Amino acid sequence: MTHYGCSLLSCGVVDERHFEMDDYQGAVARWCPGCGDHSILTAVQRLLEEEQLKPETTVFVSGIGCSSRFPHYVKTYGFHGLHGRALPVALGIKLERPELDVFVTMGDGDCCSIGAGHWVHTVRYNPNMVALLLDNNMYGLTKGQTSPTTPHKFPSNTQPLGSYLQPLNPLQITLGMTNVSFVAQTAEWVPAHLYETLKAAYHHKGLGFVRVLQRCPVYTAAIYEAAVRSPDLIELLIHDDGLNVPDLDQIYKNKIIHNPRDIDAARRLAEPSDRIRVGVFYRNEDVPVYEEIRRLPARTAEEKVKLLNEEFDRYAV
């Protein structure tokens, strides 16, 4: 993320604080044992520590779902909003306070169903923040209903004979949107890759959209069981302008050299495959950032009051 100006708390003050991971620990996480959200939370807190992000200038925004408990478990500012509405809330925060570090956590139903319209337009606006799609292929919090990303024929409580439709592909859809600037995919059971992906998204200037594949131990454990047990089912997208994680070289042998500036290649690689592809699919920092395009001139409190009174006077009877 690129920063603008300074907050009232930090402007002109040398901050010598050093934060440890424990400083970002909020409430005790109440996800199910074995839930992939635990791994994601750890990776996020590790990122906050390494980047030394100030809790008072960091905001986590969520909608509704298992993933949306995130703001409660990170000791920063947070907003736990409505189902599907995390992105417009985060966009409003970023427009009003562009110097803040804003992270959005959404589930597959949250982002790809009721929030799909906001997803499309937030990608188009390209605000300078990180959007995490925590995709467990199911509505987990409401006890196992088919979601837009549930695999075809995979049973759920609402479609016990299996999902009727082919799943929506979040990567393909995001890569097809106007002004897309960063798209990546990672998996919560590969923590080294997960962390490096989050770091790349954070340092991207623009909307860092990351789909995190995750297991739900209650409803969708079987979907990724084979990939967890067999590294041969994973393909790493590697490039100097993308991700290289040397710690994984001895485990994951399948690699694809992919230039993330090639959007046509990114779209081809995002197509369904027998293997799970993880890495940076697309990165383009030349896309304009929305808060830079429509940045409002700085005004004093007196100037704001004067303008407000002038507006009221227009409607005075």
Key features?
9-stranded mixed beta sheet, 11 strands, alpha/beta, 317 residues, 31% helix, globular, two-stranded antiparallel ribbon, Rossmann fold
Low-confidence runs (pLDDT<50, min 5 residues)?
none
Shape: globular
Largest sheet: 9 strands, mixed
Task: Tell me which CATH architecture applies here.
Answer: 3-Layer(aba) Sandwich
Q: What is the gyration radius calculated from CA atoms? A: 20 Å
End-to-end Cα distance, whole Å, is 47 Å
Estimate percent helicity: 25-40%
Structural class: alpha/beta
CATH class: Alpha Beta
At the fourth level of CATH, the homologous superfamily is Thiamin diphosphate (ThDP)-binding fold, Pyr/PP domains
Spatial order of the strands forming the largest sheet:
2-1-3-4-8-7-11-9-10
**Percent in strands:** 15-25%
CATH topology: Rossmann fold
Number of helices in the DSSP assignment: 11
Q: Helix-strand pattern, N to C?
A: HEHEHEHHEEEHEHEHEEHEHH
Question: What's the number of domains?
Answer: 1
